[in-house]
Design goal:
The chain is an alpha/beta fold. The protein is built from five helices and ten strands, in the order E-E-H-E-H-E-H-E-E-H-E-E-E-E-H. The strands form two sheets. A seven-stranded mixed sheet has the order 1-4-3-2-5-10-7, with helices on both faces. It has a three-stranded antiparallel sheet with strand order 6-8-9. Helix 1 runs parallel beside helix 2.
Length: 182
């Protein structure tokens, strides 16, 4: 039988008894400079909630991302021998360590307004799922710089970016993102 723990090489997640309102999971692979910006974006959130940020490094060969996590004192999990092929599985692995009342996935290459985590939590609080436009920015292809994601970037109604959803932790854990079984 397949177990998520079979793919985990190392775990550096604090075992404190802190109560978190929102767990943010960020899967990353060979984008350590963008990951550093993501970590700072989460640390700079202005909110009245406790945030847990878990980074899942998709491949033990991604030394740059591992070093960024250590430098910032971030909670992180290393997926071994994946060579970046885990994708949704990496997010499921992060979900196993999440302890917030709600959980969301934020990409490693986007930047969020300082109120995004609070807005997302407020949209979900008291419900199973909350959706809101957290106004995040994405890198420009082939260029230096960032641009705001706009509604037109979502091709069809109903195809929300995962960064715009917060889900109750128990519900999120009951439905895995990785449906391939591996």
């Amino acid at each position: 039988m397949f177990k998520l723990s079979d793919n985990i090489e190392d775990v550096h997640v604090s075992s404190s008894n802190d109560r978190y309102d929102l767990s943010i999971i960020t899967a990353t692979r060979l984008r350590h400079s963008q990951l550093a910006q993501r970590i700072m974006s989460v640390k700079e959130q202005v909110c009245d909630i406790n945030i847990q940020h878990i980074i899942v490094v998709d491949g033990s060969d991604d030394v740059g991302s591992i070093n960024v996590c250590k430098y910032y004192g971030s909670d992180f999990i290393i997926v071994g021998n994946s060579a970046g092929n885990c994708g949704a599985l990496a997010k499921d692995i992060g979900l196993e360590s999440a302890t917030g009342s709600y959980v969301t996935n934020w990409d490693d290459d986007d930047i969020y307004y300082r109120h995004a985590a609070q807005s997302l939590f407020d949209a979900a609080n008291g419900y199973d799922i909350g959706l809101c436009d957290v106004n995040h920015f994405m890198p420009l292809s082939g260029e230096n710089g960032w641009r705001q994601l706009l509604p037109a970037d979502v091709p069809e109604f109903g195809k929300w970016s995962q960064m715009c959803a917060a889900v109750k932790l128990d519900l999120a854990k009951s439905v895995k993102m990785n449906t391939s079984g591996g």
